[in-house]
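**Backbone description:**
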Amino acid sequence: MPNPQWLTWARALRALAQAGLTYTENPFDKERYVAIQEIAAEMMATGAEADLTTVHDLFAEQAGYETPKVDVRGVVFRDDRLLLVRELQDGGRWTLPGGWADINEPPSTAVAREVWEESGYETRAVKLLLLYDRDRHGHPPHAFSIYKLFFLCELLGGEPSDSHETGGADFFAEDAIPDLSISRVTPKEIARLFEHHRHPEWPTEFD
C-alpha cells in the first residue's frame, strides 16, 4: 500500500523546514520555516483525521537535519520455527521482537537488547538479512520515514517472558504464522526471512 501523496508532501515540507531552522540565522527566514512546519502539521492532521495538537506533540522533540529513523528486528530461529512476540498495543497481534535503535548503541547491541526485553531470550546478532525502506514493503503509512533492519540472531539462552510492551513469546512454523502486526512486520517479510533461513548463503537484501 503506497503512502498517500499528502503524507509524502507533508513529510518533505516538514523536513525542509526543520533543516532550515537548523541552519538559518535570519530571523525572518525562521518565521517562514515555522510557518511551513505548521502547514505540514495541518496537512498531516487533516489527512490522518487526527487532532492537530497530537501532530504537534509527535514532532515537538524533532530537531536538526532530519534523517530516517532506524527500527531493528530480531530474526531468531529454533530449528525451523521463528520467534514472534505478541504486541499489547496492537490488539494482541504478533511481530518480530524489536523497536527503535537508541543513541550511542550499535545496531547489534540494539537488536539483542530488544529481543531480550520483549521475549526473555538471550541472543547475539550474526548477520544483517534485510535492510528495507518501510514505505516500500506493504506497511501502513507512518508520519516518519523509517529504515527497518532485520538481523539474524543466534539463540543463546533464556526463557519466554512478558514485558510492558509484549504479552507472550513463542516459536512458529512457516505454515502456522499468527495474525501479524502489519505496522511492524508483513507476511511477505516473514516469508522472505524463511527463505533466507533455507538459504544461509544469500547476501543481505536492501531497499
